[in-house]
Amino acid sequence: MTTPLPPPGYRQTRLIDPFEIYVGPVFEKGEGVGRQYAFRVQAHHANLGGRLHGGMLMTFADLTLGQAVWDATGNASCVTLNMQTQFLNAAHEGDLVEVLPVIARQGRSLVFARGDFTVAGEVIFTASSVWKLLGQD
Amino acid sequence: MSEVPAGLPEGAEPAPGGGFNQFIGPFYRLPDREEGAVRRFCFVAGEKHMNAAGSVHGGMLMSFLDVAMSRSTRLGTGAQRLSTVALSTDFIGPGRLGEVIEARVRITRRTRTIVFLSAKLVTGERILVTATGLWKIPAAT
């Protein structure tokens, strides 16, 4: 299993969750809110039919939308309450999946984050999520 | 059976799978309940499945849902090719290292090409996750 290099313009994201490190690497460009993320589909991200596994997309969504919530809140402790995902099209080994997470609303205790995930500019997957900031009512 | 570690619920059998399933697994199938109305699967939360806060990562829980609900669609319809269309997941409580996390999946309705499912993830009788999803199957020819 060879580790993919950062795509042009991207640098490797520093991950701390063991599961994210295990399925990574993940790449990013830009700073703070407005950071964009990407990962390269490898053989072990695919199912036996050679298509990208939905679980990897949902993991990438949890990771990137969570990073966006962290950026927006100054690294507040938070948990995912709900995530809604839609699978519009397939992706395959070698594809670069990219997302620019959007904070739809930032309340006192809840943050709403979503993203359109693209391959070569085409949306293949969307995710919409609600996060709870711990210790805030 | 040597491939099934001790401590799993009775009747656990290795679930088939390669690729990502094998990478993040292993997963096991458990005996059905209610004469096949409830399909059951499980995995044991290991170090690689965790987040930095010491809970099972949400991405792992959603991946397990995808595996269990896809497999249930296949078992319930006989369809060989199928795809996840939509999944909505509520995260109710955390999973912890070493816990046996079990999926219980029901098919709510099946049309010619669409299967509606509901699922929950539990450890013991504690609910970690509830989910509903929509799968696409090819029309029978």
Mean pLDDT of chain A: 94
Structural class of the helices, strands and pairings of chain A? alpha+beta
Helix- and strand-based class of chain B? Answer: alpha+beta
Q: What is the correct CATH architecture of chain B? A: Roll
Beta-strand level of the residues of chain A, as a percent range? Answer: 35-45%
| The CATH superfamily title of chain A | Hotdog Thioesterase
Strand order of the largest sheet of chain B: 1-2-3-5-6-7-4
Total domain units of chain A: 1
**Count of domain modules of chain B:** 1
Helical segment tally of chain B? Answer: 2
Helix coverage percent of chain A? 10-25%
Q: What kind of assembly state do the chains in view correspond to?
A: heterodimer
Major sheet attributes of chain A: 8 strands, antiparallel
Question: How would the global form of chain B be characterised?
Answer: globular
**What is the count of β-strands of chain B?**
7
CATH class of chain B: Alpha Beta
Radius of gyration of chain A: 15 Å
* Largest interface pair: A-B, 35 and 36 residues
What fraction of the residues of chain B are assigned to beta strands by DSSP?
Answer: 35-45%
CATH topology value of chain A: Thiol Ester Dehydrase, Chain A
Describe the structure.
The complex is a heterodimer of chains A (137) and B (141). By secondary structure, chain A is an alpha+beta fold. Chain A has one domain: Thiol Ester Dehydrase, Chain A (Roll), CATH 3.10.129.10. Chain A is built from 2 helices and 8 strands. Chain A has helices at residues 18-23, 54-73; strands spanning 11-12, 27-29, 36-40, 78-87, 96-99, 102-106, 110-119, 122-133. In chain A, β6 (102-106) and β7 form a beta hairpin. The radius of gyration of chain A is 15 Å and the shape is globular. Chain B is α+β, with helices and mostly antiparallel strands. Chain B has one domain: Hotdog Thioesterase (Thiol Ester Dehydrase, Chain A, Roll). Chain B is built from 2 helices and 7 strands. Chain B has helices at 19-24, 58-77; strands at 13-14, 28-33, 38-44, 83-91, 100-110, 114-123, 126-136. Chain B is globular and about 45 Å long. The N and C termini of chain B lie far apart (39 Å). The mean pLDDT of chain B is 93. Chains A and B meet through α1, α2 and β4 of A and α1, α2 and β4 of B. β4 of chain A pairs antiparallel with β4 of chain B, so a sheet runs across the interface.
